Amino acid sequence: MAAVTRTPLIAGNWKMNLDHLQSIAFVQKLSWTLSDARHDFGDVEVAVFPPFTDLRSVQTLVNGDDLPVRFGGQDVSAHDEGAYTGEISGAFLAALDCRYVIVGHSERRQYHGESDEDIAAKVSAAHRHGLVPVVCVGETAEDLEQHGPSAVPVAQLRVALGGARKGSEVVVAYEPVWAIGSGQAATSEQAQQVCQALRAVVAEVLGDEAAAATRILYGGSVKAANIAGFMREADIDGALVGGASLQLEEFASIARYQKHVGT
Length: 263
Ligand code: PEP
Hints:
This protein has helices at 20-36, 55-65, 90-95, 106-112, 116-128, 141-147, 151-160, 188-206, 208-213, 227-231, 248-255, and strands at 9-13, 45-49, 70-73, 100-103, 132-137, 171-174, 215-219, 238-241. The protein is α/β, with parallel strands linked by helices. Helix 2 links the parallel strand 2 and strand 3 (70-73). It starts with 8 loop residues before the first strand and ends in an 8-residue tail after the last helix. Bound molecules: phosphoenolpyruvate. Phosphoenolpyruvate (PEP) is lined by residues 13, 175, 180-181, 219-222, 240-244. Phosphoenolpyruvate binds at residues 13, 175, 180-181, 219-222, 240-244.
């Protein structure tokens, strides 16, 4: 596979936490903390995924103060407009300057019954509107026991990427369901094994060039104390962080993992 540099991405999924006022304070402090620490955002990209109702406030702050933090939505409708009560169009996210959108998070799969086909349709919607989908895949504890770590995420990604437009950017997030919010992260070796298999799926569906350029994140109980181990792996290009992304100092420290690589 061609050698390319992939800019690491540290992404915070806030889930249903922080209202629009809290989001402004958080993003402002996060930017100050990282800027004070001389964080190079070109070297390690930082993005937050606030609830939909926060996005306008975050956009106004980021654009108004020219902050280097990126942001995106936590989900997107497969439809562009119309009678879909409660859904959010990719057009609306794009109009708010979102760069990214999470699709297929395990909580959407589990609590909202989203299938791999639904997720493929959302990937397609994201690309129609110029958004970069962060496609989440991962096995449950039962899947792990029955099929090992790679089989389920590989199958999920193969279907989800069916919705991708060739030449448009995708980010993949490997999030073992058993590791999410449990405090029990995967080992970096296991995460690397799965991320390598996921990169092969990107190559199969979108081609070698896309596979070499695509960032693959690990997610599941990431914290400042374990991020460096994941980032040392060849096929792990960042992290999707849930709980720890709500703790300002902890999240900033995760973004600054280069400072504690080797510790
Ligand atoms: C997540 O929900 O995407 C996640 C990775 O959560 P946590 O970091 O809390 O395990």
